[in-house]
Amino acid sequence: MDIKTNRAIGVFDSGIGGLTVVRALMERLPFENIIYFGDTARVPYGVKSVDTINRYAAQITEFLIKKDVKMLIVACNTMAAVAHQTIVDLANVPVAAVAYQKIVEEVPVLEVIEASARMAIQHSKTKSIGVIGTPATINSNAYARAIHLLDKEAKVFSQACPLFVPLVEEGWFDHPATRLIAQEYLKQVIAEQVDTLVLGCTHYPLLKPLLQDIMGKSVQLIDSAEAMADIAADLIDQQNIGNKNSTPPAYTFYVSDVPYRFQTIGERFLGRTLGRVELISL
Length: 282
Ligand code: DGL
Hints:
The chain is α/β, with parallel strands linked by helices and 282 residues long.
C-alpha cells in the first residue's frame, strides 16, 4: 500500500499527560509531523466507566483517522487499558472495495502499557514492582497481566491515585497539597518495599521529581514515554514510513476545551512554544 511518508503521527490523551510522549517523540523522531489531541473538556477519564471511556476513545480515533495519520499512539494508559480493541478496530480503515472485498489499511496502533511493563521487568532486581495509575487502569488489571506475561514470578503492588490527574492539569507539579496527597497514596507501595515504580498514567511523569523524592533515590521510576518513542522509531523503520522531508516538522495540537490553559501548562512542561492550539468539538 502506498503510504505518504509525510503523514503525521497521531498522539492522544485525555489532557496534557500525552505531552510526555510527544516530548520523547520530538527528540527521537525530529522530522516526523505530529497531530495531538487532548480531551480537555472531559478529563479525567480514569474515574469514568469502561463504556464511557470506550465511547470517547472511539470518537478521538475517528477524528485522528480523518486527519489521515499514518500511526496512532495511545498516550493514555486508561484508554490503552480498557479501550485498546475499540481503537484497533477503528484504525482498520477501508480504502477500496474489490469484488465485494473491502481492502483496509491497518493504521498501526501503539500503546504505553506493554512498553512500561517491559521496562519495569528490565529494571527491577527484586521483581517487586509497584504500579500507580488511574482507577480505571488499576481496576482493569492490565498492568499486572502485562507484567506477569513477561515474568510469572514478579510481585505487583497496585495503587490507584485518582487525584493526581486533576492536580497535574492544574499545573500543581510541586505543590505542598500534591506532596501530601502523594505521601498518602504511596504509603502502601513504600511499605511493600518495591524497587521499581511504574508511572502507569502519562500525567504522572510531570510529578516525577516529587514522586522520586517521596519514594527515595533507590526506587527506579518507570516512565514509558521514551520506550514508546523507541518503539515508534523501530516500527517506522521496519515499515519504511519515516518522513523523507528534512524540513522542520509540523506540530498541530487540538483540544476540546480551554486551549489557552492547555497551551500555558503544556509550554511550561515542554519548554517550547506549542504554536497554535486549536479548539474542536468531537
Ligand atoms: N493520561 C491518562 C492516563 O494515562 C490520564 C487519564 C485520566 O484522564 O484520568 O491514564
